[in-house]
């Protein structure tokens, strides 16, 4: 085994290697992704956008874009790497081979008289009788005296010149890059080392495996909870109408984590009034339908109201708390829609096919969420199978604007108007 001092000196180098091996390629990968990512810019010169500052990014938004948990972890690891490099460089314990000529300040092959002369000169400087400093005493005993003995003894000098060591040919040495207190702690180094091996090579991998398996049992494909997939599988029916897809979609277990605050009661009541027409609660039993709607789980009610407000483009009226919940809902929406479409297309017929009607409804809901267009806008009418949805997805278009256009160009259908605008937009961009 190697000297324990060498083991302790190698420990920072070992930790530095463990951190740097994954950190360097991961950092390069992140930098390449940032360099290759194109910045999306919207050039809108209208007075409304210029006054609102909607497309101007403040310095705080730019900082928040990069102050993520992943970037903070990478930065912290690089700080640790720099500290380890500095500590290794400034370490007083340097692992060097024993060189008596270098210690005595002589060149190889000098005469014995020159060796004695150099020894006397260093003895005046470092001998305990001449220098009371304990560090000088230690250096004299461990280095100067050993170097003098190695060069004045014929056998030791011959061994050093042949094999590079006064004791002759040396065997292969192995060391463990662990700190000194783990290797020698009041005679219990064996137990400490055993605990280190047990924790680092057995308990730690077992803990990682338990966490991974618990997460794998909780989540299915595309990081969707298994209980959500089971709910979707049970609620998706072959007769599911597109207008009822939203009721199934908001039953996801992910939405149950949305915090329900008392302070949100009044804003949600106001939000309910804005989106009431989209909830299909205006039938013959309107009061019963509304009562049934509010008797659902509060998190489900909140999620559906937030999504409906998104479709109606009313999210800018939210408070700060509702804005956080709104972002939380939109964060889960893509993966939940993918899980829902899988439940609709899973083979359930004798021929191994899924159900087309609910699948179409889910695709339409996905399009509406992406374009921020209400589901009612996709109702067929005025010569268009998609209603006015194709127009509402355009910037600055609303129901009032579409109504004015329809009055002026009533001879055209909505589909003709949308095609005209899209062609004009494509020509301008080209």
From TrEMBL:
Membrane topology: Multi-pass membrane protein
Classification via InterPro entries: DnaJ_domain (IPR001623), J_dom_sf (IPR036869), Sec63-dom (IPR004179)
GO CC annotation terms, alphabetical: endomembrane system
UniProt KW keywords: Membrane, Protein transport, Transmembrane, Transmembrane helix, Transport
Domain J residue range list: 99-164
Transmembrane domains' residue ranges: 12-32, 66-88, 192-213
Top-level taxon: Eukaryota
Primary location class: membrane
Subcellular location as annotated: Endomembrane system
PROSITE patterns xref list: DNAJ_2
Pfam families for this protein: DnaJ (PF00226), Sec63 (PF02889)
Swiss-Prot/TrEMBL GO biological process terms: protein transport
Entries under Gene3D superfamilies matching the protein: DnaJ domain, Sec63 N-terminal domain-like domain
The name this protein goes by in its record: DnaJ protein
Source lineage: Eukaryota, Viridiplantae, Streptophyta, Embryophyta, Tracheophyta
